[in-house]
Amino acid sequence: MADRANIAFSGSPIERADHIRVDDDALAAQMNWRARVLRLDGLNPVFDDSGALEWGTLADVPETAELCFLGLLDGKACFAPVPDEGATGPAYANPQIWSAMQALQPGELATYGGARSLVDWHARHRFCARCGGPTKLAKGGWQRNCSSCDAQHFPRTDPVTIMLVEHEGRLLLGRQPRFPPRMYSALAGFVEPGETIEEAVAREIWEEAGVRARDVQYVASQPWPFPSQLMIGCYSVTDDPELTIDTTELDDARWFTREELEAARAAGDRGTDDLIFPRSFVIAHHLVTWWLDR
């Protein structure tokens, strides 16, 4: 895929600096007047006058605040504060999130996405899953330790397969109930315990559309910080196009010809009478574009 560098939430310019995370003295030395703290309104980004992410200093946050070390940018340590609570509703219902995805430069969007995933996890894991005791931030925010039983907890990323299915020059796309009218996208679903990526792709396509997929191949991936997923983009083919749609998952699923997809892409955000092309900030856009252009 030629434009992988343009996939939303990828390509943060921050150096993660793991060697500092694991060294308490080195981390403490970074907490000085030069350090930068990402300003957040809860989990939402705060913009400066130029429309970029706004950064403050350590003096702007309470001494009791939990701070996650994001890494180094231009030699300066970057931190993000843990909010009082984590996400309480679906990200797609938050207009500030959609505005950020369209307004921020790619590197800044990746920085925000990584910070959001991390601090959201901390806000939702203040108590131990083993004993219920309180936990405290460790390793600069890349771990939490239980104060009661010494259990260690680590930020999680949930793998999700998102996939194209082709049959004789047509692609299968589906629409979820929350989608705007005429908007279709690639089918997707979580990888379950004990599954390979290829098995998850085949299972999800069968469960959602009643189609047996084969020859699964990886194409590209996208971090998706709502709350913290890794979208694993794949491509597959099928020999039988007959659909049996799981209406508990999808409103509809359809086969689209190359001509229909090309027309929808050329029409931009308004789409055609039948299809709005997936938005540029979701990996489905890049998967369908890859298929059309290869």
Query: So, CATH architecture of the largest domain?
Result: Alpha-Beta Complex
Helicity, as a percent range? 10-25%
Figure out the total of helices: 7
Count of extended strands: 15
**Helices and strands: which structural class?**
alpha+beta
> What is the fold-level CATH name, i.e. the topology of the largest domain?
Nucleoside Triphosphate Pyrophosphohydrolase
How many structurally independent domains? 2
Distance between the termini: 9 Å
Major sheet: size, sense and barrel closure? 6 strands, mixed
Shape: globular
Radius of gyration: 21 Å
Give the H and E element order: HHEEEEEEHHEEEEEEHEEEHH
Low-pLDDT runs of 5+ residues are: none
β-strand percent reads 25-35%
CATH class of the largest domain: Alpha Beta
Can you characterise this structure?
Its EC number is 3.6.1.22. One of its GO terms (molecular function) is hydrolase activity. Its cofactor is Zn(2+); Mg(2+). This is NAD(+) diphosphatase. Belongs to the Nudix hydrolase family. NudC subfamily. With 294 residues, this protein is α+β, with helices and mostly antiparallel strands. The chain folds into 2 domains: 121 residues, no CATH class; 136 residues, Nucleoside Triphosphate Pyrophosphohydrolase, CATH 3.90.79. It has 7 helices and 15 strands. Strands 10, 11, 12, 13, 14 and 15 form a 6-stranded mixed β-sheet that branches. Strands 4-1-6-5 form a 4-stranded mixed β-sheet. It has a 3-stranded antiparallel β-sheet with strand order 7-8-9, with no helix packed on it. A hairpin with a 4-residue loop joins strand 13 and strand 14. The longest helix is centred in the middle third of the chain and has 18 residues. It starts with 17 loop residues before the first helix and ends with a helix.
